[in-house]
Specification:
This protein has about 270 residues and is of the alpha/beta class. The protein is built from eleven helices and eight strands. It has an eight-stranded mixed β-sheet with strand order 3-4-2-1-5-7-8-6, with helices on both faces.
């Protein structure tokens, strides 16, 4: 049975050729912080289905730091910034290895791209970033993008992958950005604490949305909450790129969304 906005979501996916998908740490790691290999492999299969239908895919993947902690567990309690950056350096290797293994199962190559805020502010760099993304996807390779956390400091830091994925979608002139999180979408209140909170299926005015919802705190592993997702929607919809927020824990989530049986919050802008 189609959900309230399932038809609209399926139609936008059908019409979109260039799709950016962002996955947070909570989607890619188990409760203990170890990599969720089964999820990643299943996602790779679903991406292959979309690619076989003529779509191009770019992934924005969090998870470097939590992967680093899972690899070097004795560093988990170290809060020094140098250790946190070092953990990202270790974890990024592990993260990409997990993605490589997942996509290799379906004959798909991946490529790694690490960006900072400064990269998006330099015209020469953005030109080369854009050209590299186009070359990879045109050859059937999936670019997997993350912030370069091992060198990022406040002055050049984007800070969260919701906004990074929005900047990537704009850079690539994507047709759709999907943010996968651990919730079904934007609610009128926090559904984990308020059972009466209602899912907002479609947002056409982000200004009105901000006036009607309560924005909670960040989750444990990730750096972004609902606020950063709304910021991402403000960025993409300004360029007429719809943004969909959906729950990565939904079984076969891409298949479900594409079939019209999924749910989420669809941002179409003002």
């Amino acid at each position: 049975m189609e959900t309230e906005n399932g038809k609209e979501i399926a139609q936008i996916i059908k019409e979109s050729r260039k799709i950016v998908m962002k996955f947070g740490s909570n989607s890619l790691a188990k409760a203990d912080g170890s990599p969720n290999s089964q999820f990643m492999e299943n996602l790779a299969r679903q991406c292959k289905t979309l690619m076989d239908a003529g779509k191009q895919i770019v992934l924005v993947s969090s998870g470097a730091q939590i992967s680093g902690i899972a690899t070097i567990k004795e560093w988990a309690r170290k809060k020094d910034v140098h250790y946190r950056q070092a953990l990202c350096a270790v974890g990024q290797v592990e993260l990409m290895n997990q993605w490589r293994h997942a996509f290799n199962k379906y004959g798909i190559h991946i490529g790694q791209l690490l960006f900072t805020k400064e990269d998006f502010e330099n015209d020469n760099r953005t030109l080369h970033m854009r050209n590299t993304i186009f070359t990879l996807v045109d050859e059937g390779v999936i670019p997997i993008i993350n912030e370069n956390d091992s060198i990022s400091v406040d002055e050049i830091k984007i800070g969260d992958n919701d906004n990074l994925s929005a900047l990537t979608a704009i850079l690539w002139s994507a047709d759709l950005l999907i943010l996968f999180s651990d919730i079904d979408g934007v609610y009128t209140d926090n559904p984990k604490t308020n059972p009466d909170a209602k899912l907002i299926g479609m947002v056409k005015s982000i200004k009105e949305l901000r006036e009607t919802i309560k924005i909670g705190n960040n989750n444990e592993f990730g750096t972004g909450g609902i606020e950063t997702k709304i910021q991402a929607a403000e960025k993409t919809t300004a360029f007429n790129i719809p943004l969909l927020l959906a729950n990565s824990a939904t079984e076969n989530v891409l298949d479900t969304l594409a079939s019209g049986n999924g749910k989420g919050t669809l941002f179409l802008g003002d």
